[in-house]
Amino acid sequence: MIEIESLSRKWKNFSLDKLSLQIKAGEYFVILGPTGSGKTLLLELIAGFHIPDSGRVLVDGKEVTHLPPEKHNLAFVYQNYSLFPHMSVKKNIEFGMRMKKIKDPKRVLDLARDLKITHLLDRNPLTLSGGEQQRVALARALVTDPKILLLDEPLSALDPRTQENARELLLDLHKKTNLTVLHITHDQTEARIMADRIAVVMDGKLVQVGTPEDIFENPVDSQVASFVGFENVLKGRVLSADRGLLRIETGEAVIDASGDMEAGDQVYAFLRPENIALSKTSTQSSIRNSLQGRVTEVWILGALVRVKVDCGVPLNALITRQSAEEMKISPGVPVYAQFKASSVHVLR
Amino acid sequence: MIEIESLSRKWKNFSLDKLSLQIKAGEYFVILGPTGSGKTLLLELIAGFHIPDSGRVLVDGKEVTHLPPEKHNLAFVYQNYSLFPHMSVKKNIEFGMRMKKIKDPKRVLDLARDLKITHLLDRNPLTLSGGEQQRVALARALVTDPKILLLDEPLSALDPRTQENARELLLDLHKKTNLTVLHITHDQTEARIMADRIAVVMDGKLVQVGTPEDIFENPVDSQVASFVGFENVLKGRVLSADRGLLRIETGEAVIDASGDMEAGDQVYAFLRPENIALSKTSTQSSIRNSLQGRVTEVWILGALVRVKVDCGVPLNALITRQSAEEMKISPGVPVYAQFKASSVHVLR
Amino acid sequence: SMTFVFSLILLVLFLFIFLTLSNMIFGQLLGDFSGLIKAVENSSVMGAISLSLYAGFLATLLALFLGVPTGYILARFDFPGKRLVESIIDVPVVVPHTVAGIAILTVFGSRGLIGGPLEPYIQFRDALPGIVVAMLFVSMPYLANSAREGFKSVDPRLENAARSLGAPLWKAFFFVTLPLSARHILIGAVMTWARAISEFGAVVIIAYYPMIGPTLIYDRYLSYGLSASRPIAVLLILITLSIFLVIR
Amino acid sequence: SMTFVFSLILLVLFLFIFLTLSNMIFGQLLGDFSGLIKAVENSSVMGAISLSLYAGFLATLLALFLGVPTGYILARFDFPGKRLVESIIDVPVVVPHTVAGIAILTVFGSRGLIGGPLEPYIQFRDALPGIVVAMLFVSMPYLANSAREGFKSVDPRLENAARSLGAPLWKAFFFVTLPLSARHILIGAVMTWARAISEFGAVVIIAYYPMIGPTLIYDRYLSYGLSASRPIAVLLILITLSIFLVIR
């Protein structure tokens, strides 16, 4: 368990401002935030590489704020893995045991087998692929059996295919060993897939903590909303509110949404492009918006197509190439943009 | 018009091997190939920065193979834009005119207006964003009114949003000025969107030339096929062939495809993940394959979900998150993998 | 802690250098200021110091003329024997100073390979040309290496871009490559000049006369002892350091 | 073309350095080989050369002891006045050699700030310690700068990783940081040693005797002329260059 109490620190261009956070034992906790938001600084403060300007860090109830890093007893894996380039993979893994004077050669071999790096033990780390380096870094960090694992952007140096395997590996490790994992990333998809809970950090401040559902379905403010992928931001006014069902006027369109606003409220409606479907025919219903409009721009992005539709308000939709071809989507074509009322996220 | 005749050159780790190619006047021509395939070397040979070991380069019918680069009369824009950091944006754009002793200040201003960089003219290029730098580099290259524009990976240094604008800009420029554009890239989507014609270069050799449709629907060999996104590669045997409609046995499945093979032929069938739809119900027809299978792995990739299905052969499908949720796709779930016979590309 | 011990050692090193120089300088300024004034008023002292600065300047000019093109070739082209050429150009840095003097005298003396044929036209021994050649020999590598690093730091694609815009190679060099490596070359020139005017051993062998600053200091020290040579030493270093500060 | 002209200039520079050294060396080897043999058999010649190598070795050891911790602090920490400290540590490179000698004599002479109190225990003037101090003063910056660059090239995250694995700072330093900057430090040590044994001006002022190689060359040149000093010069440079080649 990690308790962070009102932690502040300025360092180079980064700063953290009175950040408090509790991470439960055994949790897979992800800190999500854009590049430069101070995430790595936070991780380095927890690991003891920096001393905070104010505030405390407690690990399992014991204050470690001013202890040197070697007394924090947690495993730390950097984005670039930071393997020692002058030691073999085996020596890298044994390093922690040498420092802590633990003799247990079997543990190195067991861990190497679990992480599928037995065949790499005599290699130099510089000759390994990104995915292999990561597994070695994990073995090195876990060999002395720490209870807490800190991961600094663990997937961002890997190519997409290796990322898939690495995610699986990390979740597996977490499940099997009952580790508390604190993982930082700027990638919302990664956070959504992996986290038990997520904290969103922006500009050195904690903005929201919650389950992935909380964060991705109910972002607390517009900054979080657009960071987690609600690209369509519609400014409007609530026309009527009836038991949670809102009618909102935005631009020259009226949309249905759900929320606890009142008639007359000025609101913002957030909508993900992938939640907007396009159709040649209208299929109106009480819980489904269907706005008539006209395609203004089309961009093919591999298997997906991004379509801008003018429905009185401009909407960005993301559809498959196949359906774009079937509907012969191109600028000027009339379409209906359809989305569920429940996929509109409304904030004041 | 550019004619390349049997061009060979070894340089560092790159080499070109007897490459011949003709680019027509006014064409938007894309050279597509993986990193390290020698694309940039080819472009630098055309521009005269290297002398080929053998072969010739002709521009508008005139041989330029051994002329120094300043006599090639073509515009060259590097991936990093290579703006002169010790000159203002304006001086950068004027450089070509200074060298060619052309005095026409209006041309600089007109071009700056067309490329929307008038407000940047007094800035230092190092302070510009990637997209701005690219527009300045284009202005600098085009100010002396060349007939041919060579682009070295022009989009790969830009973030995705800026890429969209840059594509539009390049296509616009091409349309308005009747420039011959030779654009190299490793990105198949970029090639597909932008090219009039595409040449695929691999390991220094020309593998295929054709329209985007030719390349992406009818790759000549398995190397090109998997490079342009046919991720599913099924090895099989033609059971029957009837007026272009093939039945192919692969693994424990039989699929329909089209091609001019004969019964008994050993073939490879290529299939894009985005062309495979998943469904809970079978909708068999003569031109649509529908293979019964079971989900083995699921990976959420933002708005898309990648699903591995075992249908007697393993198939990778790419579907939207929405439909994955509606079908409650998860490992173990039975599904039908459906794809048109026409989206199977068959090669011997 | 380790950091504390290391900081103490840094302090010792700093004090060794700082005290050694400041003790001499302030000892002179505070203890015997009139000696310094006398040195300034002495024409042979000022003549020797001026000669140091002037000969150093000439050596630097020659070094620029030879070192800038050399640096460019080494930065841009590969050729067989390149590593040997680079090593030879670096050798003067490690040659003991009087050995360099003997070598220069052998070649540029009146019976030497170069000095012999040139004897009717130019005198090296005990003359300004000899001083300049000795200074050039020991300081040359600084300029050639700086220029090479400067040119290496300029992306060749900038040169290519200039050429595709219509610049022949020499225009690309003068309008793009040279301005962008000017800082490196300037720093190299300052180091070359400083190395040239600091030289004693190589110069004293080919030309005891006319005396440069370091030779005069040695001469006074031998004839009249420490107190007679120290004012000149202080004067020389103060002038050198202030020229440095001005250039930076 | 420009490339051709530049290549010619490179050739001139190369020949200037190569001919100067090879003319002296081959002139001796081919023209007066017996003179070289006599020098090898002469005990005062071999004694002076050995003293050069030995004193240079001691200066390098001291430089390592002082320069490695200094380089680490400068690479890893920011503190007020850091730029001043770095500048002062670099000053010996630009101090004229006889000026350095005068400064060292001022401080380490028998009436000096340090030499005075130490007089009963250790003699600097005309003694090995004086030679070593003079060599250390002029060569120190090479080691401190190399070590600093070496430590800068080691990612601090490697140190952090070692510490999170249970290593206190000094173990992280000795097991991770130091081995990874060993190459830089070794190159710095070789340069320091080369600079130390090449010094003449600073050494000759604090200690004409016991004679080091460069001093003996100068002494023989003054007393007996070029032909008497050249064999020693050739011997010294051959020994120096071969030690270099062995180390590299």
Measured by DSSP, the beta-strand proportion of chain A falls in 35-45%
Strand content of chain C: under 5%
Annotated CATH topology of the largest domain in chain A: Rossmann fold
Structural class category of chain A: alpha+beta
* Helix and strand sequence of chain C: HHHHHHHHHHHH
Tell me the quaternary state: heterotetramer
Tell me, briefly, the overall form of chain A. Answer: elongated
- CATH level 4 superfamily of the largest domain in chain A: P-loop containing nucleotide triphosphate hydrolases
According to DSSP, the number of beta strands of chain A is 20
Instruction: Please compute the radius of gyration of chain A using only Cα atoms.
Output: 24 Å
> What is the domain total for the residues of chain A?
2
How far apart are the first and last residues' alpha carbons of chain A, in Å? 35 Å
**Quick one: biggest sheet of chain C?**
none
Uncertain stretches of chain C: none
**Mean pLDDT figure of chain C:** 93
Rounded mean pLDDT score of chain A: 89
Largest sheet of chain A: 6 strands, mixed
Neighbour order of strands in the largest sheet of chain A: 6-7-8-3-9-10
| Helix content percent band of chain A | 10-25%
SS elements, strand count of chain C? 0
Unreliable spans of chain A? none
